[in-house]
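Data card: per-record layout.
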Amino acid sequence: MNSTDLANYLAAHWLEVAGFVTTLLGIWLTTRRSMACWPVVLVAAGFYMVVFYRARLFSDALLQVFFVALTLYGWWHWARGVRQDGEVRVEPLGLRGWLGGLAAGAVGSVLLGWLMVRIGAALPHLDAALTSYSLVASWWQTRKHTANWVLWMAVDLVYVAEYLYKGLRLTALLYLLLAALAMLGLWDWRRAARTTCGGAGVEASVETACDEASVS
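The structure for this 216-residue chain is written out next.
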């Protein structure tokens, strides 16, 4: 690709490029538990809201609207935690939280899939399922649960295939990188959780040893 081709591509796909850069930066900052992640993620959601709407991926476009709301909530929740603890502290997620989140994702997949079929969205059922479980992962992220990274890895890898099919190659690459960042986030947050729990070295079946205390 010569400079002219590159310039033409950027002119035609500048929204996707902007969304790519801001999303990647925002998620990297999230893996570092940095408060700066929230304004960056907020901007990224705005870019991708337009990109997905133009691609008729209406579930994904709607997801960005929810991302805006969750981002504002997460920003507030993390800031409150920093004021109380002096840092963003990882919170355990028990078995009930896992089962409840996965069940909510399944119900959301069915309901949103029905709606997307009626409005003629592309890949309605797959896109609805990915949107629903993305919301679960985002909620867990705002609540500072390490489990969010496990779910994000699974969702991001399926998104790669979907975006390749829809011709959004740059976005497919982004989600492949996001899956790698989710692995980094899982490692970093688990390390932080062990520190929070006083150096517990044995992990529970779904997250860390701290999780066992949260199952009642």
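Known properties of this structure: The chain is about 75% helix and 0% strand. The helical segments are 3-12, 14-31, 37-54, 58-85, 95-118, 124-142, 147-165, 169-196.

See the next section for split statistics.
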